[in-house]
Specification:
It contains no helices and eleven strands. With about 120 residues, the chain is an all-beta fold. It is elongated, with a radius of gyration of 14 Å.
Length: about 120
């Protein structure tokens, strides 16, 4: 089974850091993409960072140099390290994992419920 759960969000001041985690995708194999997305108040969901093909990493322009996506495959956890946070980073952050379901080998595309990151002085 797959049940993505994000954690690590919270309220921080500008310039501070947070690390988000995403677990619950042990039921997926041959993972083709793992990523973080966010939805700010009144805006559409947008890409933050994504890993494809196991090693190709792409960041949104606003995340380049401040955020780092990584994964710990043995424990099936996806991370997003966010540094130098700004008020405009305030959003609900979602993880997304795509791969083959281990129980029937069909394609799976899963989203977590999100974790709120609020940046305010």
């Amino acid at each position: 089974q797959v049940n993505l759960v994000e954690s690590g969000g919270g309220l921080v001041r500008p310039g501070e850091s947070l690390r988000l985690s995403c677990t619950g995708f042990g039921g997926l194999g041959m993972i083709s993409a793992m990523g973080w997305y966010r939805r700010a108040p009144g805006k559409q969901r947008e890409l933050v960072a994504v890993i494809t093909g196991g090693a190709n990493i792409r960041y949104a322009d606003y995340a380049e140099g401040r955020f780092e996506i990584s994964t710990d495959n043995p424990v099936k956890t996806l991370y997003l390290q966010m540094n130098s946070l700004k008020p405009e980073d305030t959003a609900v952050y979602y993880c997304n994992v795509q791969g083959k379901k281990t129980w029937d080998a069909s394609d799976g595309d899963y989203w977590g419920q999100g974790t709120l990151v609020a940046v305010s002085s």
